[in-house]
Amino acid sequence: MVPGIGTKVVFERNELDRLITALRERQYRVVGPTVGEGAILYEEMTSSADLPAGWTDSSQPATYRLNRARNGRVFGYTLAAQSWKRHLYPPRQRLFRAERAGRGFRLSGGGGDEAPMAFIGVRACEMAAMQVHDRVFTQDGFTEPGYVRRRQAAFVVAVECAHAGATCFCASTGTGPAVGPGYDILLNEILDAGRHVFVATAGSEKGGEILAGLSCRAPAAAELSAAAAQPASAAAEQQRRMSADAAGVLSRSAESPHWDNVAGRCLTCGNCTMVCPTCFCTSVEDVTDLSGDIAERWRNWDSCFTIDYSYIHGGSVRQSGASRYRQWITHKLASWQQQFGTSGCVGCGRCITWCPVGIDITAEVRALEDREQGR
Amino acid sequence: MPEKKRPKLAVWKFSSCDGCQLSLLDCELELLAVAEAVEIAYFLEATRTAGKGPYDLSLVEGSITTPHDVQRIREVRRLSKVLVTIGACATAGGIQALRNFHDVKGFIDRVYAHPEYIETLATSTAIGDHVAVDFELRGCPINKHQLLELIGALLNKRKPNIPKYAECIECKLRGTPCVMVAKGEPCLGPVVQAGCGNLCPTQGRGCYGCFGPISHQPNTAALAEHFTALGMDARDVQRRFRSFNANAVAFRKESEAHAD
Ligand code: SF4
Ligand code: SF4
Ligand code: SF4
Ligand code: SF4
């Protein structure tokens, strides 16, 4: 029987392989967590052997380490180094190709021929980030066709956090750790007394159909309560929080002397924007071959921290590191509210972990708040 | 279609290892397309024939280290419509600019049996310190894709897509997890211009700065402080800033701030 939306079932850990196979049989390109280059990465996978079973990670400002765990937890890490943005809105996108043909030219290659993707292991904060992008890329009649196409075709297997990382703060931004609607399947991984099972919730008809192909049974009461307790304990573990008044603080802090203090530490390297699941800025470049017979237009990730990003006639608008950091954090936490009706921060903590010098967005807001109140 | 008049290309060498010129030869298949698109009028590394100037595009490799170089680069400038420096030697003085921090006469006396035959300057300096430069291609050596991009852009009269941003951006576009964060490897990436294709971080190593400092306000002091926090002593910090681009202003100043 196909589990209806909201129905919970339980399957054994070994069934994960069948889950991946079932998705692949439906022509999905399955993308999920793997271990590579010293971190968890979201990459294409072919079987459950690619999953990071027995690995965990620790995140501190400017420090990340992969560690061996004592248990065989499959989703025992927190987050990959980069988010699903890499797949839904890739770092380099070819917009079109133009080839000289007689006196005119022929256009091709707008995309649209990629296989649909299935994402395994989407966290609550990452679901929230996708929903932020859903607004950004469809707002006011402006639709980003590539993103919308990839997003609509994507199958989402969310996994609820049993633990939070030391840089996570989704509980204070209201974006986790409990996974909100929008998934096709939600998993809670339960390891206890030698048992290793998944409580699975169908979130869509597609999700129910996939679950129907696995060997599932009805959940026991203890399994349901163990699953329900996970987000609460992940929330309780969180060591950081974003000020509830972040937007207000920033909108009043344009002239704060604190910006020079941050600029003394900030390398303007752009890592924070690159790893952020919601930052979406890009620039467009035109390339030609030597003969000039073929031209292509590409859209590449860019960042408000690069000097050329604010370049207009006569020079760059944001010359100083102070103005560039201010732009980033103010846009993220305050102007997004006006622009998109939501904060641009989902509390994933990546910008804190992956900032090479550990600049902490929550601490900078607190410092601005302290200055405001003369503390 | 009538035969287009092909622009004349010249490749010049000053004090250097020839590695950047080899990057042009390394273009292999694309080199044929280059040879079709331009007339290679002067390129001693590849051919003995030396066509006469003036040249539409001069690629200049190497730094200025002798009184003769000083004269010759002025002549090259006079013969060139567009002058592009290629590589760390030409854009910053190269590894041989390490001499700038020491007594060159002392080296010569030690190394050569007849020091009186050696005619050299006390410093190795960038081409841009002597003549006007139209564009800089960074790198030790340069990246051949950037070279082809530059030539393609000049031929098609468009802006070259040679980003000025930091290596970190290139690193993140590729998807490399930061080696400084994930492995504690000191990395110059945040203050170094992109362009190498993220070679070292993809091998789990920190950036050594082949492409030189970003042109706009590299925060070398904050990065040096972080290197110290990662356990580097002052000498190692100095050495990190003192390699292929030791004489680039930002790196020279930062290296001088750390003990010898
Ligand atoms: S805050 Fe950190 S990651 Fe962001 S630009 Fe500054 S140094 Fe780089
Ligand atoms: S601003 Fe930082 S914590 Fe917030 S969503 Fe972006 S990367 Fe995550
Ligand atoms: S921020 Fe929240 S949802 Fe995201 S990984 Fe951390 S605990 Fe999980
Ligand atoms: S590895 Fe180096 S280049 Fe890459 S993000 Fe880290 S500091 Fe930047």
Q: What does this entry look like structurally?
A:
- The complex is a heterodimer of chains A (375) and B (260).
- With 375 residues, chain A is α+β, with helices and mostly antiparallel strands.
- Chain A folds into two domains: 8-237, no CATH class; 246-372, no CATH class.
- Chain A has 13 helices and 16 strands.
- In chain A, the strands form four sheets. In chain A, strands 3-2-8-9-10-11-1-12 form an eight-stranded mixed beta sheet, sandwiched between helices. A four-stranded antiparallel beta sheet of chain A has the order 7-6-14-13, with no helix packed on it.
- Chain A is globular.
- Chain A starts with 7 loop residues before the first strand and ends with a helix.
- In chain A, 45% of the residues are buried.
- Chain B folds into two domains: 8-155, NADH:ubiquinone oxidoreductase-like, 20kDa subunit (Rossmann fold); 167-256, no CATH class.
- Chain B contains twelve helices and five strands.
- Chain B has helices spanning 19-25, 29-37, 67-79, 87-92, 104-111, 144-155, 167-174, 179-183, 199-202, 220-229, 234-241, 249-256, and strands spanning 8-13, 39-43, 55-61, 80-86, 135-137.
- Chain B starts with 7 loop residues before the first strand and ends with a helix.
- A five-stranded parallel beta sheet of chain B has the order 2-1-3-4-5.
- Chain B is globular, with a radius of gyration of 20 Å.
- Chain B has 260 residues and is of the alpha/beta class.
- Chains A and B meet through strand 5, helix 9, helix 10 and strand 13 of A and helix 2, helix 6, helix 7, helix 8 and helix 10 of B.
- The complex binds iron/sulfur cluster (4 copies).
